[in-house]
Amino acid sequence: MSAESSLLEEDTFSSNVVPAVRAARNRGINLREIAKRAKVSTATVSRVINRIPSVNPYLAKRVWKVVEELGYYPNTQARALVSGHSRIFGLIVSEITNPFFPEVVQAFENVAIQHNYEILLGSTVHAPKRMELAVRRMIERRVDGVAILTFGMEGPLIEDFRLRKLPLVLVDVGSQIPGVSNIKIDYQHGIRQAVQHLAAMRHVRIAFVRGPAHLKSALARKGAFERAMNE
């Protein structure tokens, strides 16, 4: 056997076996073992893994070093039960295949990761039953907050989150709701640009596709279009 083929076999062995070995070892590793090796208390290990900022940075560094050496992966569900926080944000969108949403989802996840959060994504595909299922998943996973970008479908289900005192971020809901943040989209500016562009090309018979009449966002777009046409 050549040296090159031997190295290739070793690389293959490492990539396939090491994760499995780590997983097997992880099943036998507990906070006591980590505390023993890091020479700290189990309470300190728990606070470090739960990212509680009051831990001495020097001790936290020792704990993370042992965690890395042992290939330990914390049980996030158990950690959520202890801390009361899942460190998961929920994000519900209308339709993930809509070109509007992938960039929004990516930006949302980027910010979540920067703050040591994960995201749980749900897509309603404009179906009320799918919306209910997404809400149920968020509640069952005990998410720490939810952003709902469904532009009108969220109304009947907002109370489910509010009863559980979950922070909510909505888009274009309109009315002020206590404990809920609402992101307003500036339709006026974008639609005015579109109308001015068509007018500059000397078009005068300009059509507008409004969307479902029951959606506040659709009515806002229609109003923005009418104002731009009057201008």
Account of the protein in words:
With 231 residues, this protein is α/β, with parallel strands linked by helices. It folds into 3 domains: 3-74, lambda repressor-like DNA-binding domains (434 Repressor (Amino-terminal Domain)); 84-183, Response regulator (Rossmann fold, 3-Layer(aba) Sandwich), CATH 3.40.50.2300; 187-230. 55% of the residues lie in helices and 11% in strands. It has helices at residues 3-28, 31-38, 42-49, 57-70, 76-83, 101-114, 128-140, 158-163, 187-200, 216-230, and strands spanning 88-93, 118-123, 145-149, 168-171, 180-183. It has a 5-stranded parallel β-sheet, with helices on both faces. Helix 2 (31-38) crosses helix 3 (42-49) and helix 9 (187-200) packs across helix 10 (216-230). The longest helix has 26 residues, at 3-28. It starts with a helix and ends with a helix. The model is unreliable at 1-26 (pLDDT under 50).
Give the strand content. 5-15%
* Helix proportion: 40-55%
Question: If strands are numbered along the chain, what order do they take across the biggest sheet?
Answer: 2-1-3-4-5
- H/E element order: HHHHHEHEHEHEEHH
Poorly predicted parts:
1-26
Mean pLDDT: 80
